[in-house]
Structures are given as structure tokens and as C-alpha cells.
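PT: before anyone asks, these are the final sequences, not the draft ones from last week. 523 residues across everything. Please model them as a single complex and drop the result in this thread when it's through.
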Amino acid sequence: MRQVAILSVAMTKFGVSEKTNLEMFAEAGLEAIAQSNLEPKDMEALYFGNCLGDFEEGQMHMAPFAHAELGLPISAPATRFESACATATVAIRHAALLVGAGIYDVVLAGGTERACAMGTPLATKTFAMGHHAQYESRPGLTFPGVFAMAAHMYSDKYGIPLKELKLNMAEVAVKNHYHGSMNPKAHFQKEIDVNTVLDGMMVADPLQLFDCCPFSDGAAAVVVAEAGRAKDFSKKPVYIAGMGQASCGPLYLQKDITRVRSREESVAQAYREAGLGPDDIDVVELHDCFTIAEILALESFGFYEFGKAYDAATKRETYLGGKVAVNPSGGLKAKGHPIGATGAAQVTEIVEQLREESGPRQVEGARVGLVDTLGGDFGTICNIILRS
Amino acid sequence: MDYKLTYDQYQQGLEQGKLLGLKCNGCDAVTFPPKSLCRECNGSDLNITEIEGHGTLRTFTVVRVPPMGFTAPYVVAMAEIDEGAWVMGNLVDINPDDADMSLIGKKVRLGNQIVKGDNYSGGDSRVVTFSLAAD
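LR: through. Structure below.
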């Protein structure tokens, strides 16, 4: 395999947007191409992420239209990726695999999502289409519901009283909102305190509103290239050191959802390829769709023993300046979660961190960063380790 | 290869009050609800079997912000049946506001109920229910 670099990254502001999916993607994609010092005509393929365009805008098969918006050549195929919330990371991984294999030299990858256009009842319905339709959507399961069940199981399994667990989960939200307050691209740029979380409306017991990430609109894109291209480029090169991806089936087959087996496998693949381990990671963008999700992820990575990560934010170990900076962008919780774009925005944050371009939320001396994106109810996990 | 126990057959079973699953002739594991291969060993030598309908509640949530078409609050739960498989369903015969951590580990009895169809589900369907078993 050839070495692969990320030449450039770009994202729109995340939040509620009046722009279409294509308009948002054009904004991010053209910015990423401009930042790479290349032209649209130099892109050899477009790996395009979008989950719910069919419901958001009545638009299926959006990739060729994105291709047209960006002015890519007819010779560059545009392909839609859909891996629920892990969509863009999976698109980027596959771009990197083909660049590594020598099929392409330069690929544009990323995603776009306009979830807010659906409104909460339809958005909740369409997101729930990510569960097993016959056996798990039909009892009325929702995504907050899955992570709520994981939180109850975590409390029971490790003997942590629910009240204590919830207080520590709230600290995850407080941290990520604090980080998000320093990110001008974040959906929410306001600090909150523990009471904001504990006074919020109940979404799915025990998860309250501020335990949950928002529905967001936004797009992000990255230029993936053969590493030689990065050397004649003015910005500090950022390389893909390792990647992983793994799959699990429906929840009834996963059983104990305090252990995310797909993530344990995926991150092991990424560590192995990179020749690195948990102690080598300086900065992480992980999939904190819900506060409990961040806790589960920290344990899957091997940063903490199982059952021990629940108070990491409370002890400030995952803050900027802590043991390992987790979600300096604000994470999905505060930066927002336009599902088809999220993974590309996580890569954007890590690349900017490794280039020391992150301003007030810069992780000092960051050299190695981990991207972690979860799709569906733990069905897909994709990890990318980047290094400067 | 023939699909041993289709979703439609499983649904017909529920309609008759039967919980149909698959028993593996290779490893004896019971797969419920059904899928193509044994959940334990991926074996394809399977016989249709009827589940006893007893289990233990492993986790739950009370959904308060429902998807379009559902009326909240209601309880979604996962239980481990005595035959070893886990299954998702609705905990019924309980006020959702009374659902708390003490439910985990409780014995449940399995049944089923109808969920109204919508534009995406091809009509009404039946889902597994759990009721707290009498001590």
C-alpha cells in the first residue's frame, strides 16, 4: 500500500441552514479543493456521503448532482456512501484504500446532511430506520432509546447508581459544550452546567435533552491524496497512519451493549496498521451522539478499563489540557451532527489540530489524532488514525 | 438455500400465539427471533421450534420523544429468554412512569401485540411484548 495523506479539509458551519444539501456540499467541497492547491478537474473520484436526502429533499442519487455542482470531470465517478452516522468516515476510508492501492492519486470525499428540514417527528422516524426494521424499529425504538438502554445496562453491570452515572454523563455534555464554545463552526457555542443537563426534558429514560446531540445541517469534505502530493504542498503534511472498520448485527444479537465489539475490532485494526496504541493518541474526535456514548468509546479504545471511564470528564482527564483531549471541536454534542457529514468534520478537526490551526482550542503539541465514527446501533464503526 | 423460517411465517406464528424460533442441530443453540443461520455457530441445519416464552429483563428505556406514528410514553426493553437468545420488545402492563432500575433482572413472560403499519412497513405487524411474571 502507498502512503496516503489528507491534503486539505473544509466544513460549513453546522446548525440550522436554509441551504440545500448540494449547496452546503459545494461550499465545503470547493473550499477543500481550493485549499489543496488543486482544481476540480484534478479530482479523480468523488466519494459522497448522504443518509437521508430522500426524506429531507426528495432527492435520491445525489452524488452525480454534487459532482456537477463541483465541476468535476466526467471521468471522475461520483458514488454515494450510506453507513448511517459513520457515512463520511467510511467514504474517506474507501477513498484512502483506493489511493493507497494506486487506483487513484486524488479523491474528494465527504458528506452533507440537512436533517433539520425534516422536523423532529419525521427525523426521529427516519433515523430509527437505522434499526433492524422488522424486529427492532417496530416496537418504537429510537436512537436515544438505544443509548438509554446502554446507560441502564452500564449502571447495572458496573454497580454505579443511576443517579451517580447521570451526574457523570452530564459532565461529558458540559465538557463538550465548553469545547464547542471555542468553535465558530459549532451548532452550539454556549457553555452549560450540570444543572442545564439535569433540568432538561426527558427524551428516553435516563437520557435528557442535553445528553443528546442535536439534529443538524451541514457539510464537510476532504481531499485524500497519494502522500507525495503532500510534500510539494505549503501546509504541514498530515498522513493516514492506520484505519479500521467493523460491523455488528442487530442489538438482539449484540446482547451486552456496554461493550461495542465493532469498535473494539475496528480500533484494533487501526492501532495495528499504525503501529501505535492508546497511549500514543494526543487528540480524539469520537462519536458522542449521546453522553453515555463517549464513555463507552473511551473504554473501547483502551484508554480506560471497562466500567472505569464514566467519570473521566468529571475528573477533567478528557478536557483540553487533560490526559487526552476528547472532542475539542465540541463533538457531535455541541458542534452538531449532520449525519452524512459528521465523519468528514471529525477528520477536519483532527487535521487542523495536527497542523496547529485550532486557535483557542488547540491541543498543545498534538502529533497523533484518532477519528471514531459510529453508524447505526453499533452496526458500523470506522476509525482513522492521523499523524503529522 | 431455502430460508427456514421467514418473517412472514414468524408473524403467522405470533398471530396464533406461538413464538417460533430455530434450534440448531449442530450446537443446540436457539435462534430467536429467526434469521437465516444459527446465531451461535452460523450452522444452517436448523429446525423450527416453539419458544417457551419465559425470560429475564436485561435493559429498558421509556421512549418519551417518539418517531412519527407512535404515541409516547412507552417502554422498549430487551430480555434474555430462558433458551439463551435475546429479543427486543415492549414491556407492557406497567405505567411507563413506574419503570425504574429495579426492572433489570426481573422475570418476564413473552407475548405479542399489533403495531399499526405506515407507509414504510407494508402493513400492520406483530412485535414481542414482555409482562412482569408473577413471583
